[in-house]
Specification:
The complex is a heterotrimer of chains A (276), B (289) and C (434). Chain A has 13 helices and no strands. Chain A is mostly helical and 276 residues long. Chain A folds into 2 domains: 54 residues, no CATH class; 166 residues, MetI-like fold (Orthogonal Bundle), CATH 1.10.3720.10. A two-stranded antiparallel ribbon of chain B has the order 1-2. In chain C, strands 1, 2, 3, 6, 7, 8, 9 and 10 form an 8-stranded mixed beta sheet that branches. In chain C, strands 4-5 form a two-stranded antiparallel sheet. In chain C, a hairpin with a 2-residue loop joins strand 4 and strand 5. In chain C, helix 18 runs antiparallel to helix 19. Classes of the chains: A mainly alpha (276), B mainly alpha (289), C alpha/beta (434). The interface between A and B is large, with 101 and 108 residues.
């Protein structure tokens, strides 16, 4: 609904929007800035904003203390693995719901979403006992499967709403031309579904990356992702703001950068059928 | 349009997702139900486990913490929903206006969504809300006011603020896509007819956004009902911030009473379903899924 | 000295060759306290000596507790060694969840462990966890501010004196608070402090029939005194201050006095972190003339969960980490002030360590704490700042949340005590004590 406006109005818009944008972003900016301060500067009164002695000391300390790369790799593998696995299962399900709907489709969809409401803490013991039985405690496989299951309902739903917007006539035309089901999916649907799939993929990667209950409770050393890395820097003894900031920056930087670079794709598919 | 063949194919394609989710729901649910009728105190091997009927249920609901916890849960969910939806609409309308650097501003606004809940809780708690060293305390002092003791004296508000900060980007994004799809001719026509901005907002923009708002409320509710990290890190359930989820955590892990905690889990599922039904009734008609 | 090093090196080579075939990887869960982080940095020494490698799982205290408790109660076996405290050890040992440490080597010299620590980490006379460091609590105070206030700190002050001194040292404009104390909810945070304090006021958690005692006058006195003193002289927002928050306040020079764990002494006297390192004095935790002081007893200890396959390697690690050799290793690298304190008798007989300013007061505090006889009136439980029963952690966390709500001005002392009484009795009934 963008319309032409006067320059004055545009200046005003720009100023307000940037002001709000910076306000919302400020906590993250402050964390990043603090990570380059010494512990003493981090709690200086009054706070120092930009004019301090920039130091990489905190990053060095964090790197020396914990094997960041291993946590990072675990995060990437678990979040990525669960997203891809989920996609593999969700795409066919969403496809069939969108194009071969039945009376029960809506109920199934709502039921799937309702499984997300089961409070995780309440089932920690059952799940932990199952993990022990299966011998998958502290493994990336176990965690990948759990995160996939947690996000599966959202994935199915997102894909479903997206697929629903693909006009059925195109499919029928393809069918008339004698396309098989496989060809139909591969050559007709997939290209049209790419934005939706891409944004589903991104959103779930982010959700899996940030999941902090199961990733902490089902891992020890081998499969621990960045959420566990953070848990070793929160409230230690003594001054810790700068080190915590460095660890936080290291934990959120990869996903922040990914999110920013792919925000167009993320936004394009993130409609949940909201756009009519 | 759908043939018998495509129907069975469709069922086959749906099967993995349905079966997996059924398993993911049923196995823990059945175990939770089983535990909830049993005396199960792992820390007390001297007490024989056994069936106790509805004792755990009665004890959980009879505890003085139960109703306040339900109330706290609803306040947090409701508060965050109101804040994110209202601010989300305002932000979406603002971001839709012509301006310089729209893309960059959007990047700034969506950034909090990428931050792990643990990290955002830690950053807010220590670097912003700390009554001595926090930025907000410095700001208050700068204006000659006494710093607010956020996490003790305005605990619930603080948690709502932290969680809203995390979810505002999500709401804004969804609402922005909806705003951008608004038919500008219709708006211009209304403007010509002399409709004030408020009228245009109320009669044209808001109805258009209804569906997007529904989506935001639905998705956020699902996530908000089970928020845990934000409370665990900031107040540990003190100062009236104990939600139902947190109460269950205390029963299961701190008191090591699995039976009692499981009964609480069943109550939480019931509450979630009540909220879900309530939501469907109110907003479901917007969602012709 | 050179000869000794050569000998150590030689023996290291021998032991590497002899144990290389059995090299294991140990997974160790620990808390992110300074001493443990230092231990992590020195792990190479252990690997060199034994050939075993170590994977560290370093977590914040609350997360650690949650993690190891889940694992031990379900016999998950995710860890080969767990860092636990004096509260968990006897309970878990009694449940058969921990490997008894009754066959440690002769060089390890288990008799060198301070009796109070050994007692607290044993069940029925069997040691279940080896203390990595031990602590009591004591007063740390600013000698310069005390002098400016025209007061002198006795070695064993009373609460009345502390309250007066705190008021005299407080200077709100300069952001100096006379006294900083824990008020944060949680049984191991504010809960531990107020319980230890209440002992000196003649309060107790339970009578001999396990009835909660929050309806008694001593508890009311304790809370009224604490809240009154903190309103006069405490920092803003003390209701959310725990050990770490107070440590950072003290290090920034914002506290006149701080009553907390003895291990804090090495942090507040370390000039790298503390602005007030040169002017810190120490005294015993205060009393009220009732025969009990308000200091606690605690140890962070290493234990082996019964499920692990790597018991032998785990024992080797525990012997390494809690040995006198490890203490010497730290002293060599970081100086004597930074060695893990409070675990071994020999440390306090070492002239190098006796020169450390807080060594004697730490030892005196530890020696004056008696977990078996902690309350003025007789009580059925063991423990000073806790009652060593499995239900305590859950109950005390909830009770301390009620107390913290008082500190934040959200409810009255009477309301909080009434709720505490109900919470405790209810939980004790559920657990079959009453």
């Amino acid at each position: 609904m963008a319309r032409a406006v006067t320059t004055n109005r545009k200046i005003l818009n720009t100023a307000i929007a940037w002001g709000i944008g910076l306000l919302i972003f400020f906590p993250i900016l402050w964390t990043i800035l603090t990570s380059f301060k010494t512990e003493a500067q981090a709690i200086a009164d009054p706070p120092v904003f930009l004019f301090f002695d920039w130091t990489l000391e905190n990053y060095a300390v964090v790197q020396e203390r914990s094997n960041y790369m291993r946590f990072l790799m675990n995060s990437i593998i678990i979040a990525g693995g669960s997203t891809l696995l989920g996609l593999l299962i969700a795409v066919p399900a969403a496809w069939s719901m969108a194009f071969v709907p039945s009376r029960r489709t809506k109920d199934i969809l709502l039921w799937m979403l309702s499984t997300k409401m089961l409070p995780a803490v309440g089932v920690l013991y059952p799940i932990y006992l199952i993990f022990i039985q299966l011998g998958i405690l502290d493994t990336r496989v176990g965690l990948t499967v759990v995160l996939m299951l947690i996000n599966l309902p959202i994935m199915v739903w997102m894909l479903y709403t997206y697929f629903k917007e693909i006009p059925g006539e195109i499919l029928e035309a393809a069918r008339m031309d004698g396309a098989s089901l496989r060809e139909e999916i591969l050559y007709v649907l997939t290209p049209m579904a790419v934005p939706g799939i891409a944004s589903t993929l991104l959103l779930n990667f982010i959700l899996a990356w940030n999941e902090a209950f199961w990733t902490l409770n089902l891992t020890a050393a081998k499969a621990a992702p960045l959420t566990a890395f953070i848990a070793s820097y929160s409230s230690p003894e003594g001054l810790f703001y700068a080190k915590l900031s460095a660890a936080s920056t290291m934990a959120i930087a990869p996903i922040l950068i990914l999110g920013w670079f792919s925000q167009k794709q993320l936004v394009r598919g993130l409609t949940f059928g909201a756009v009519k | 349009m759908a043939t018998q063949q495509s129907r069975s194919a469709a069922r086959l394609m749906m099967a993995p997702a349905v079966v997996l989710l059924l398993g993911w729901m049923l196995v823990p649910l059945i175990m939770t139900l089983y535990f909830s009728f049993r005396r199960y105190l792992p820390n007390r091997p001297d007490i024989e486990p056994g069936w106790v009927g509805f004792e755990n249920y009665a004890r959980f609901i009879g505890s003085s913490s139960f109703w306040p916890a339900v109330q706290t849960t609803l306040i947090i969910v409701g508060g965050v929903l109101v804040i994110t939806v209202v601010l989300g609409i305002i932000l979406a309308l603002l971001l839709d206006q012509p301006m310089w650097g729209q893309g960059a501003v959007r990047i700034l606004v969506i950034a909090p969504f990428f931050v792990m809940p643990t990290v955002s809780a830690l950053v807010w708690k220590n670097m912003f809300m700390d009554p001595v060293n926090g930025i907000l305390a410095h700001l208050w002092k700068f204006f000659g006011a006494t710093p607010v003791q956020w996490l003790s004296q305005a605990s619930l508000e603080s948690i709502i603020m932290i969680v809203s900060w995390q979810w505002l980007p999500f709401a804004t994004l969804i609402l922005l896509t909806a705003v951008q799809s608004l038919d500008s001719e219709q708006l211009e026509a209304a403007e010509m007819d002399g409709a004030s901005y408020l009228n245009r907002f109320w009669f044209i923009i808001l109805p258009h956004l209804a569906r997007a708002v529904t989506i935001v409320i639905l998705i956020q509710t699902i996530f908000l009902l089970s928020i845990f990290a934000e409370i665990f890190v900031t107040t540990g359930g003190a100062f009236g911030t104990r939600t139902l989820t947190y109460l269950i955590f205390q029963r299961v892990l701190e008191s090591q009473n699995i039976g009692l905690g499981s009964a609480g889990g069943v109550y939480a599922i019931i509450l979630a379903n009540i909220v879900a039904i309530f939501l469907m009734r109110i907003v479901g008609k917007n969602l012709d899924a | 000295m050179k000869l000794r090093n050569a000998l150590i090196a030689a023996s290291a080579i021998v032991s590497v060759t002899s144990t290389a075939a059995l090299a294991e990887t140990l997974t160790i869960a620990t808390v992110n306290n300074g001493d443990m982080i230092r231990m992590q940095g020195l792990t190479d020494d252990f690997t060199e000596k034994t050939g075993h490698t170590v994977e560290w799982v370093t977590l914040e205290e609350n997360v650690l507790r949650q993690r190891v408790t889940t694992d031990i109660t379900t016999k998950g076996g995710a860890f080969d060694i767990m860092t636990i405290g004096m509260y968990e050890t006897p309970i878990w040992g009694a449940n058969g969840w921990l490997v008894p440490l009754n066959d440690l080597s002769a060089e390890y010299n288990v008799d060198d462990i301070l009796p109070a620590m050994r007692g607290g980490l044993s069940h029925d006379g069997t040691l279940y966890a080896a203390p990595f460091y031990g602590e009591s609590s004591m007063i740390m105070y600013r000698t310069d501010l005390m002098e400016a206030a025209g007061l002198e700190m006795p070695d064993a002050p009373t609460w009345t004196f502390i309250r007066e001194a705190a008021a005299a040292m407080t200077d709100r404009d300069a952001e100096i608070n006379g006294i900083c104390l824990r008020g944060k909810a949680g049984w191991g945070e504010g809960g531990a402090f107020i319980t230890a304090m209440s002992n000196s006021f003649g309060a107790r958690w339970f009578d001999m029939d396990w009835n909660a005692q929050f309806d008694t006058q001593p508890w009311k006195d304790t809370l009224e005194f604490y809240v009154g003193m903190m309103m006069e002289s405490g920092p803003p927002g003390y209701a959310t201050n725990g050990f770490n928050e107070n440590l950072s306040l003290f290090q920034q020079g914002k506290c006149g006095m701080w009553i907390d764990a003895t291990v804090a002494a090495s942090f507040v006297t370390n000039p790298d972190d503390s602005e007030v390192a040169d002017s810190v004095g120490f005294a015993l935790a205060p009393d009220n003339g009732l025969g009990k002081r308000s200091n606690w007893l605690w140890a962070w200890a290493l234990a082996i969960p019964a499920g692990t396959q790597k018991t032998d390697a785990a024992k080797e690690f525990i012997e390494w980490a809690t040995s006198t050799g490890y203490i010497e290793l730290v002293a060599e690298n970081e100086g004597w002030a930074n060695v893990p304190p409070g675990a071994r008798i020999s440390l306090y007989e070492n002239p190098n360590y006796q020169a450390v300013p807080f060594a004697q007061m730490t030892l005196d505090s530890i020696l004056s704490a008696d977990p078996n006889n902690s309350t003025v009136e007789e009580s059925p439980y063991v423990g000073i700042q806790f009652a060593a029963i499995p239900e305590f952690a859950g109950i005390a966390t909830e009770v301390s949340q009620e107390f913290s709500a008082v500190y934040a001005g959200q409810q009255s002392i009477d309301e909080a005590l009434e709720k505490a009484q109900a919470i405790t009795n209810d939980a004790m009934e559920a657990a079959g004590y009453r």
